[in-house]
Amino acid sequence: xxxxxxxxxxxxxxxxxxxxxxxAGHLVPGERLDEVSLATRFHVSRTPIREALQQLAMAGxxxxxxxxxAVVASLTPERLxxxxxxxxxxxxxxxxxxxxxxxxxDAFALxxxxxxxxxxxxxxxxxxxxxxxxxxxxxxxxxxxxLAEQARxxxxxxxxxxxxxxxxxxxxxxxxxEHERILAALMAGEGEEAARIMRPHVQVxxxxxxxxxxxxxxxxxx
Amino acid sequence: xxxxxxxxxxxxxxxxxxxxxxxAGHLVPGERLDEVSLATRFHVSRTPIREALQQLAMAGxxxxxxxxxAVVASLTPERLxxxxxxxxxxxxxxxxxxxxxxxxxDAFALxxxxxxxxxxxxxxxxxxxxxxxxxxxxxxxxxxxxLAEQARxxxxxxxxxxxxxxxxxxxxxxxxxEHERILAALMAGEGEEAARIMRPHVQVxxxxxxxxxxxxxxxxxx
DNA sequence: GAACGTTTCCTTGTATACAAGAATGATGAG
DNA sequence: CTCATCATTCTTGTATACAAGGAAACGTTC
Lengths: 222, 222
Fold this sequence. Notes:
2 copies of one chain form a homodimer. By secondary structure, chain A is mainly alpha-helical.
């Protein structure tokens, strides 16, 4: 069907590269994206760079101000809250569907990802990556590839901010035990229960949200 | 904040134009989008056209096959089902939030949109447009602008297919009475109830899905 | 010394030229 | 008559040249 993923246009490749830099925090919100700098850096002309930037603009990762260049999109606290609210709902939905449709290979992948989280629970950065994989396993288990893509997209967009979250004390420990309960519920076919645990697991509220905003301000993101 | 919506780059304008043509069914799924034709049609060179196409590709409205040009994205029945499933969930979420956060102006807009639907309930095409406005009023009432944007985006993407749906016998009548119940629930602050009605209202399942696929085949969309 | 206006420079926006990969049609063999 | 191979043509991909709008720096005036 749509599996010729090997065929990537240059613009798409460039988009991924820049996207990675943004997600990894190498390019910070508000930072200017100069077309000629990017062009020389990637050894191409401005044309494909501009095409990549247009793509990133649609993905919400950069903001293009006509005649004034592109900057890495910076989210206001309000918008960030909104996005986490939607992310929580999408992941809840994944849980509900996954519990109903869970196949053997999905179950295996989930357990594998969970054990990987457990193995690195004392290393923040490693846990961060393993956590990402665990959540993606749930997206895939939903059996709805469109939903999985959307969730993946939003996850990626929130990545720079989510990373900050885990720095909070005991967050990794809590996160892991929530995973455990989610996994158990999924295996038992209790979709509603899994969804109910997933929601606050993802959504950043109350104190946790204040903490996130505080770290944001430290970064100087406008 | 982010309110200088008047500033649109040429590429963005072109994207909207082409997007409208797709949503309106003037450009059908699978149709080839020739760069030079579009360029001459809009009196610009290929460069901004290409930028617009890259944007549309990210929005999922066109598919770009490297070296082989862009075509209007055509959805498989499976994918269509998946997208409606997500759409239903997003709109349910809007209901849940809207019931909690409903302000006087939101309530007014909702009632207004509902009355507009009632006024044109015997004209399929007019109802189709009024229906769109009603749903958008709910998105706005959610108080989550990001959610509203996402819902709007997906609504737009499904627009060509949604239009086919309403042609089914009695669909408009059923749609309208469902609106009534949703509205009543929202006004009463019964978010869960509104969400519960909204889900099947949006999601295309069972017979209705078969009908949709049948109309699709008539269109000849691969 | 500060603020305003002017000029210069730099960046973005667009068109166009050229290169290179598909699609198409023709020609030949089986 | 059908299929394969090759040549031609057409379309896309990329670089570059030029135009035009901001930004910044400079000088001038109050």
